[in-house]
Design goal:
single chain, 404 residues, alpha+beta, MetI-like fold, three-stranded antiparallel beta sheet, 14 helices, 55% helix, elongated
Length: 404
C-alpha cells in the first residue's frame, strides 16, 4: 500500500499556513525581496560597486529628478560586465566599474569634430573631441588625426580606428547624449538613492540569514546536549546561557563588535552570538520532553548511538518551534543591524545599509524637500521587520497542533 504523506506535520502546517492570507502574502513578499537581493546589480540603475558612483553636481536632488548628461568614455581599461563567463557573475555579486564619466549638462552644440557642452556647475562651455567622448583613447598615443572629414585614432586596446565625422556625430547622439532619472532622488554625495536602497536589501537579508544560521547551530547543539544528557552537562550549558542572558543584548553586541572590529562580516558574528541563548533554551525544553517518549526508549533498546537519537529522531520532531523562533530572530537581526549601523558601529560606508543611510541623512528629517532621504530607509526597515513578524505569527499558528 502506498504511503500517504498527508499526515506529515509539515504538510499539515503548510495546509494551515495557506489558510492564513496575511502570512501567505508576507511569504510571497519576502520571496520577492529575496529575488531582488539575488539579482542585485542586474536591476539597479547604478551597477557600480556599492552603488557608489557620485555625481557631486547633483547632490540631494528630489524624487523623480530628470537631467541630461554627456557620457564620456574613460581613457583606460575597465572591468566590463559580460553576458557570458565569469565576468557576468562577478558583476552580479560585486558590481562593475562605470566605464564612463557622467557630465550633467544644460545645453550642447556640435561643430566639426568637437562637442561644446555647458555643464550644470559651470557657466561656460567645455570642449570635447567626439572620438575621445565615444572611445577610450590610448594614453600613450593620444593623437587624434582629422583629415578630409575623417577621424583616425588608436584606443587603449591597441586597435586603430577610422571613422567619418558625420557617423561619429550620429553615434554620439545615440550613445553618449542621454537623459537620466533619479527615481528616489540622490543622496548628499550625488549617488542614486534607489540603487542604494535596493542594495541595502542584501545587507539586511545577509545579516538575517547568517545570524540566524549561527544562532541555530550553536543553540541547537548546546540545547540538545543539555536537554538530552542532563546532569553536569545541563548545569554547565545553563550556566553559560544564564550568564549570557543576564547581559543586555545591545551591550553584548557592542562588546563583540569592539572586540572583533567594525565591518560587514563582523556584524554577522556579533548578532549571531547574541541570539543563540533563546534557541538553546527552547531546544533544551523540547528535548527534555521528548527524551522520555516511547520511540526514544525503543531507540535505546535497539542500541542506537546517543547522537543518532538526538539528531535523527529528536531534532526532526522539534523543527516546527525551531522554525518559528528562527523567523523571530531573523526580524530581530535586521533591526539590530540597522540600529548598529545607525550608531556607526555596524556596516561601514560606502556599503549601502538602511541604518547607515538613515544615519547619513538624519539631519534632513526636518527639511520639507529633503526629508525623504531619512524617511525612505526608515520605512524600508519597518516594512521588512513587520513582514517577517507577520510570517512568524503565521508559522506559529500553523505549527500549533491545536490550530484548526
Amino acid at each position: 500500500m502506498a504511503s500517504n504523506n498527508s499526515n506529515s506535520p509539515f504538510i499539515q502546517a503548510w495546509n494551515r499556513l495557506k489558510k492564513n492570507k496575511v502570512a501567505v502574502v508576507s511569504l510571497f513578499f519576502l520571496v520577492l525581496i529575496l529575488l531582488v537581493a539575488i539579482l542585485g546589480y542586474c536591476i539597479t540603475p547604478d551597477s557600480t560597486p556599492n552603488a557608489n558612483y557620485q555625481v557631486l553636481e547633483l547632490r540631494t536632488k528630489p524624487m523623480g529628478y530628470t537631467y541630461d548628461a554627456l557620457l564620456i568614455r574613460k581613457n583606460k581599461v575597465t572591468e566590463n560586465e559580460t553576458i557570458l563567463g565569469l565576468g557576468f557573475f562577478h558583476g552580479l555579486l560585486f558590481g562593475s566599474e562605470n566605464p564612463y564619466d557622467t557630465k550633467p549638462i544644460k545645453s550642447y552644440r556640435i561643430k566639426n569634430e568637437n562637442i561644446y557642452v555647458q555643464t550644470i556647475d559651470q557657466g561656460y562651455e567645455v570642449k570635447y573631441n567626439i572620438a575621445d567622448v565615444l572611445y577610450p583613447i590610448s594614453i600613450n598615443n593620444q593623437e587624434i588625426r582629422v583629415l578630409n572629414g575623417n577621424i583616425s585614432f588608436e584606443d587603449v586596446y591597441g586597435q586603430k580606428h577610422q571613422y567619418k565625422i558625420n557617423d561619429l556625430v550620429e553615434k554620439l547622439k545615440v550613445e553618449s547624449l542621454v537623459t537620466k532619472k533619479y527615481l528616489f532622488g540622490s543622496d548628499k554625495l550625488g549617488r542614486d538613492y534607489f540603487s542604494r536602497l535596493l542594495l541595502g536589501i542584501r545587507v539586511s537579508i545577509s545579516v538575517g540569514l547568517i545570524s540566524v544560521l549561527i544562532s541555530v547551530l550553536l543553540g541547537v547543539t548546546f540545547g540538545a546536549l543539555a536537554g538530552y544528557f542532563r546532569g553536569w552537562v545541563d548545569d554547565a550549558v545553563m550556566y553559560i546561557v544564564n550568564v549570557t542572558w543576564s547581559i543586555p543584548t545591545l551591550l553584548l553586541v557592542f562588546a563583540i563588535v569592539l572586540a572583533v572590529g567594525r565591518g560587514f562580516w563582523q556584524i554577522f558574528i556579533a548578532v549571531g552570538l547574541t541570539m543563540w541563548v533563546e534557541v538553546a533554551r527552547l531546544v533544551r525544553g523540547q528535548v527534555m520532553s521528548l527524551r522520555e517518549k516511547e520511540f526514544i526508549e525503543a531507540g535505546h533498546s535497539l542500541g542506537f548511538h546517543h547522537f543518532r537519537i538526538i539528531f535523527i529522531h529528536i531534532l526532526p520532531n522539534i523543527m516546527g518551534p525551531l522554525i518559528v523562533i528562527a523567523t523571530a530572530n531573523f526580524a530581530a537581526a535586521v533591526l539590530i543591524e540597522a540600529g548598529l549601523s545607525f550608531l556607526g558601529i555596524g556596516v561601514q560606508s560606502p556599503t549601502p545599509s538602511w541604518g547607515m543611510m538613515l544615519k547619513e541623512h538624519k539631519n534632513y528629517i526636518t527639511s520639507a524637500d529633503k526629508a525623504f532621504l531619512a524617511i525612505i530607509p526608515g520605512i524600508a526597515i519597518a516594512i521588512m521587520v513587520y513582514t517577517i513578524n507577520l510570517l512568524g505569527n503565521g508559522l506559529r499558528d500553523a505549527f500549533d497542533v491545536r490550530s484548526k
